[in-house]
Amino acid sequence: MPDIKLTPLGAGQDVGRSCILLSMGGKNIMLDCGMHMGYNDERRFPDFTYITQDGPLTPFIDCVIISHFHLDHCGALPYMSEMVGYTGPIYMTHPTKAIAPILLEDMRKVSVEKKGEQNFFTSQMIKDCMKKVIAVTLHQSVMVDKDIEIKAYYAGHVLGAAMFWVRVGSQSIVYTGDYNMTPDRHLGAAWIDKCKPNVLISEATYATTIRDSKRCRERDFLKKVHECVDKGGKVLIPVFALGRAQELCILLETYWERMNLKAPIYFALGLTEKANNYYKMFITWTNQKIRKTFVQRNMFDFKHIKPFDRQFIDNPGPMVVFATPGMLHAGLSLQIFKKWAPNENNMLIMPGFCVQGTVGHKILNGAKKVEFENRQIVEVKMAVEYMSFSAHADAKGIMQLIQYCEPKNVMLVHGEAEKIAFLKDKIEQEFNIKCFNPANGETATIQTPIKIPIDVSLQLLKEEARKFSALPPDPKRRRTLHGVLMIKDNNVTFMDVEEACKEAGINRHIIRFTSTVYINDPGPAVSTAHKLYDIMKEKLSQWTVTFVEGEISVESVMITVEGEEDDHKGVRVTWTNQDEDIGSFVLNLINNMGQ
Amino acid sequence: MKLYCLSNDPNKPCHILTFREITMMLDCGLSMQSVLNFLPLSYVPSNRLLNLPTFMPNDVDPDLEGELKENGDRIFVDSPPEFCPPLDKLVDFAQIDVILISNYLCMMALPFVTEGTGFKGRVYATEPTLQMGRLLLEELVSYIELCPKANIAFQWKSFLHKLPYPLSDSFKPKSWKQIFNLSSVNASLSRVQMVGYNEKIDVFGALQVIPASSGYCLGSTNWVISSDHEKIVYLSGSSTLTTHPKPMDHNALKNADIFIMTDLTQTPISNPDSMLGVLCVVVSLTLRGGGNVLIPCYPTGVVYDLFECLSIKMQDLGVAQCPMYFVSPVSDISLAYSNILAEWLSSAKQNKVYVPDEPFPHAMLVKNSRLKHFKYIHSSGFSTEFQEPCVVFCGHPSLRFGDVVQFMELWGNNPRNCIVFTEPDFDYIEALAPYQPLQMKVAHCAIDTSLNFTQANKLIRDLKPTTLVIPECYTQPPNAAPNVSDYIIETNNERNLITYKWGEVINLPLKRKQAQVYLDNSVAQKIMPIEIKNGLFLSTITGSLSVKDNMHNIQDLAASALGRTQNYVKYEWGSVNITEFMQKLYQEGFTDAKLETIGTNSYMIHMLEADTIIQLDDNNTHVLCNRDDIIRTKIRNVLMQCLRNF
Question: Where is the Beta-Casp domain (chain B) (predicted)?
Answer without folding.
Answer: 303-432
